## 1
Amino acid sequence: MLKIDIQSTVFTAVIIMGVAAILTLIFGINHLTKGRKIPFFGKRQARMRRGWRLIIISILLIPLAWVTLNYAEPMVYVFITPSPTITQTPTVTVTPSITITPSITLTPTITDTPSITSTPSLPPEVESKSESEVPPNPDALFSPIVFARRVDEDWQPIDPAEEFDNPVGQLFGTFSYNNMAVGSQWSALWYWEGELVHFQTRPWLDGTGGYGYTNWEPPDQHWRPGTYEVQIFVGTQWKVTGYFTVLGEIVTSTVTPSPTWTQSPTASLPPTQTDTPTRTPTSTPTVTPSQTRWPTATNTMTPTMTRRP
């Protein structure tokens, strides 16, 4: 499927107008030169008027192309946003970070800090990992971030939401973009309650406009309940922020492998060697008392010895 962004459309229109201006000018001059050679007055005047008309049109096309190049794209963005997921804008209304700031009202001298939250800055540890030498385009645009556990083959979110129950697993933050400079540095920062927990930074290798995402797949026990914030930067310039919430307790099922240690009692198999008591049949030689039957024979002999006349 062919995807053309607004910037490419404007450039194409300007090129068409420039080519049309050149061709119209050539045709107009051609009409003037040939019109002077026509001997008939009426036909000569008609050809000359047509030639001047084409020249005037070519002159008007030049400033029209200049106006289109400089003002058409901003005018289009007034009526059309680059994101087809504009219906997902309720994610913008979920700005609990501003409602959390009352904790700062405990120290009135710090109440000026909301100006910092309105324009986030790139942390030095992330900025130091920049690898790009291509300057970013300050006119780059990003749509609101939409969060989902899965995306389709076109990088569109599947079952987007603003709240996720533990265990979350992998999470995607999808967006659309325009006017990106290929090779410029971009960064995505994931915060939990103001604490940086994950970030991605690399040169931009996709096109100037289209769809993209940032993702995070930590171990389950790293998904802590609370409010998460994802910030996107182009170079050091902040572009957009998205929010979502994780519900439920921290999943600790990964600790369950410890019961595998309980298999160590299988080492207690040596007690099964208590089968040695089966060797107690050695006491069966006590059958030798059966030899005590000999005294019964002595009883039979006594009557024969006691015969008296």
Note: DSSP finds seven helices and eleven strands in the chain.
## 2
Amino acid sequence: MVVPLAIENFISTLQKDLGIFFSREDLDGVIVLQALTPDIALVIYFEENAVRVNTGDQRTFHIDQDQILRDPYKIRARIYSLLGRGKVIHGRQTVVARIDKGIALAFLAENHLQVAIPGKYRYGLFDEGELVSVAIFSGGRRMREQASNYRSFELIRFCHKAGYRVVGGLSKLLKAFIKDFHPNDIMTYVDRDWAQVSNLRTLGFEEQGCTSPQAFWIVDKERHHIRGVEHLVQLQQTYPTGYISHNSGSTKLILRL
């Protein structure tokens, strides 16, 4: 397996910046990096249908090579944040406010790994005038099994500014949204490639099962979500050099109010 230089540079920079030594194992289409302190593993996938590696109880981040090739800075920033690195700001010292679609989309494009989505309602946390966290919510949805006035909302996107950790930030954003719209519940999905056990449970969210892994057609630095057999055939014809990759699915969580 020939590993792109950009991936080797990513691994080297990550070790240097974190001050962590990873043991390394190159498998068929996969690189497994493991550290004892902290007890984490990074698994990088290169080839078609590479099966997600099971590292047992070790906290594991699963990353496809296209994500690193496209956004190495975002990937490193996400790992740093999840490991408790970066500038710490306490939510109590921030100001929460509604933000417009343009500001939200620009912040997400710069700091979130997934596609920027404007949602229906957008909230931000500001530290001395600087936007440091954003939460994006859907509109209210009726639930067939609930009373006609029951409304469920979705937390669609949430992230901090790269290089920052806002302690209590999501809790403050949720409280502001709940005060304004009085939802009966808030649901969200957590990417299992990054979190096998969600820390949202500390905020009162309850796990409601997992979604199936999603399939993507990977072409160089880009990924296309496969929406069905016909769409896959179309992608294969349009981008014949691509290959299929699957993520680990998501965990669905609900905060009942």
Note: The radius of gyration is 19 Å.
## 3
Amino acid sequence: MITPDPQTTRIWTSLLNTGQALLEGIESELKNNNLPRLGWYDVLLEIEKAGPNGIRPYELKERLLLPQYGLSRMLGRIAEAGLITREEVENDGRGQTIKLTPKGLAIREAMWPIYAEMLVNSIQDKLSKSEAAELERILRKLGAGS
């Protein structure tokens, strides 16, 4: 059996704890500002990037790397909040196109400054330019085998 050395275990634990703390901080700030969860931001952004013609759910799933069931539920909640519309695709009985509503765009735009501030406060302000470059290099190296 392969056993990681103690440093490898500490690195893994630190990566998980740091990532979780950063996510919780962003989620907390969004909640304090009566905004949706961070996962909604990514969905709204990808729909916005798709343009006025919208995006098909399978394309969105590929861009976000979410399981189909999770995305379907999330899209349902986002639609109920009036942030997106689902339109049937002509000549495709099961197909839909998802489009951002003006309210959805406004919410996505309201979320970004909070998200951006948390990134700056949590990462950018704590690392020198060279530390940030080194961390990015290391994380890319770790992710390369994934």
Note: DSSP finds six helices and two strands in the chain.
